[in-house]
Design a protein that fits this description.
Order of helices and strands: HHEEHHHHEEHH
Distance between the termini: 61 Å
CATH architecture of the largest domain: 3-Layer(aba) Sandwich
Structural class: mainly alpha
Strand content: 5-15%
Radius of gyration: 29 Å
CATH topology of the largest domain: His-Me finger endonuclease fold
Shape: flat
Bound molecules: zinc ion
Helix content: 55-70%
CATH superfamily of the largest domain: His-Me finger endonucleases
Strand order of the largest sheet: 1-2
Number of domains: 2
Length: 185
């Protein structure tokens, strides 16, 4: 059996032989340039060569400065930013506002995008994953069922199945008793 590529090459895309060969030549791996370089290029125990380390630190510094500046700008006049957001929102049509709200809710509540939701709808043929029926109320989208413990989205359900599942999940131990009871009649 051949070793899978990803193991043969390791996480840097380099074989063990290449790695040992570079070490014997007195070279080290630069995590900035993603290649072997002479160990003279390195400062102490750093994982990037001098050039790479400098540009990395410069970029980080620049980012910090930019962040600090935008923070200062915001706090100089917080109302200005709020007014701008308000103005932007008021320019939306009711449909745009509704869509935006929906996208936001999908994102914060279920951690999925509208595209992912639409893909699930297409995959299930816009039918409930349990009963296989469409949503009873016209134009109402299917409910998103998610695992309350892990937050993972499991599937799309109709309102009825969604409610029933919520009850059954919380009272799993009662299901056999329900069945036994119904069988008596
Ligand atoms: Zn380098
Ligand atoms: Zn259903």
């Amino acid at each position: 059996m051949t070793t899978p590529e990803r193991f043969r090459l390791g996480k840097y895309g380099v074989t063990r032989e290449q790695w040992l060969d570079a070490l014997s030549r007195g070279e080290r791996w630069c995590s900035g340039c993603k290649k072997f370089e002479s160990s003279d290029n390195f400062r102490g125990g750093q994982t990037r060569c001098r050039v790479s380390q400098n540009s990395y630190l410069n970029a980080r510094y620049k980012k910090d400065v930019e962040r600090e500046e935008s923070r200062k700008k915001y706090w100089a006049n917080p109302q200005k930013a709020r007014d701008y957001q308000k103005k932007l929102r008021s320019s939306w049509t009711p449909e745009q506002r509704k869509l935006k709200h929906r996208i936001n809710k999908l994102s914060w509540k279920y951690r999925i995008t509208l595209e992912q939701y639409d893909a699930m709808v297409a995959e299930q043929g816009n039918l409930c994953a349990i009963c296989g029926r469409p949503q009873r109320r016209a134009n109402r989208p299917l409910c998103i069922d998610h695992d309350h413990k892990t937050g993972k989205v499991r599937g799309l359900l109709c309102d009825f199945c969604n409610q029933l599942l919520g009850f059954l999940e919380n009272h799993r131990d009662r299901i056999p008793a329900f069945e036994a009871y119904l069988k008596k009649f």
